[in-house]
Amino acid sequence: MFSSSQEEHCAPSKDPVKYGELVVLGYNGSLPNGDRGRRKSRFALFKRTKANGVKPSTVHILNTPQDSKAVNCKGQHSISYTLSRHQTVVVEYSHDKDTDMFQIGRSTENPIDFVVTDTVAGGQDGEETQITQSTISRFACRVVCERNPPYTARIYAAGFDSSKNIFLGEKAAKWKNPDGHMDGLTTNGVLVMHPKGGFMEESKPGVWREISVCGDVYSLRETRSAQTPGKLVENESNILQDGSLVDLCGATLLWRTAEGLFHTPTQKHLEALRQEINAARPQCPVGLNTLAFPSMQRSRAFSSLEDKQPWVYLACGHVHGYHNWGHRSEREPNTQRECPMCRVVGPYVPLWLGCEPAFYVDTGAPTHAFVPCGHVCSEKSVKYWAEIPLPHGTHAFHAACPFCATQLSPSQGWSKLIFQGPVD
């Protein structure tokens, strides 16, 4: 089965070179109301027809606002570091024929290639929740890819705005490095975590770091927007690897390389696994009615429950059809339910298949569910994500389901599913 799905990934040589993909955690294959334009749940980075990368060139030390205007009017990309009311350092950037630049942020202005908004945990009921005050920067970060093999991708904090400028004001964390070049951090920062051993079941979480405007690596600040930067980490780099996570303080992105995506399951593969489970005709051990996972489309939309929908007692893993007994709490009926098979008490939730292939670390069968949300994927995938601490708020970290961003139970982040086959 996997050999045929591998063939799906094989592209004719005339196709554009794919550097990789950025996938937003918390969405099960698409945004709740569908992907639209530059606002979507995943963004593929392809080699551009013409290079649009930039690299540092001239440095100006300016003492008056008029000097600053004169530099900005030249129409080149630049980064402005305001040191005081009377002094600004402007670093001009010139065209780089060897790199492609992609910009990510909350802004819908033209310079942004991938529009990202705050992820609402569990907010996949078909309605996009409006965030009143976003913590994601309008021009959050930029990814720069080398146009020649091995197509190395590097990440930098901050993106150039419509006037081709990155502006670090007086209050922003900024400094002059020993070699003389200026650098700084954005307000809420761009955090990156490279997994140890790549993106596979044996991998272990790396250490979360902060990336500077110039791409250097720093330990985390005391709080997300503290004025004082962390310490420079000299033996680490801003090069993205398969499975690297990028946190923009409101949304977390997963970077998958083109090579890594070649080894992920395809939509066809996941659909075949769904049909395989349903073909085995799992039954509710009490009602003896046949259960069936909803279509991938319905699972992606997190839409209304179906009559044959499998439900699970998360504390023990026994899979049932829906029934309305065994309540231990009148106020929250499905949080404390007694399993009729083993009498264990715990949450009782519907099961939904994980439909975003990029979150799978292997092509195994969907045998395990995340706790407490009930998203189902392979054993190795649930165990991988249950070990990954994701930034939450200004200084907290916790593991979460990649398909809906729901915080996992600290005592039991996943449950092995126990299906009953047909009696006949």
UniProtKB/TrEMBL annotation:
Keyword list, A-Z = Phosphoprotein
> What region holds the Pellino FHA domain?
12-272
A GO BP annotation = protein polyubiquitination
Which GO terms fall under molecular function for this chain's record?
ubiquitin protein ligase activity
**InterPro entries given in the database record:** Pellino_fam, Pellino_FHA, Pellino_RING
Please, which domain of life does this record's source organism belong to?
Eukaryota
Q: Which PANTHER family match?
A: E3 UBIQUITIN-PROTEIN LIGASE PELLINO HOMOLOG 2, E3 UBIQUITIN-PROTEIN LIGASE PELLINO-RELATED
Q: Which family does it belong to?
A: Belongs to the pellino family.
- The name under which this protein is listed is E3 ubiquitin-protein ligase pellino 2
* Organism, as annotated: Crenichthys baileyi (White River springfish)
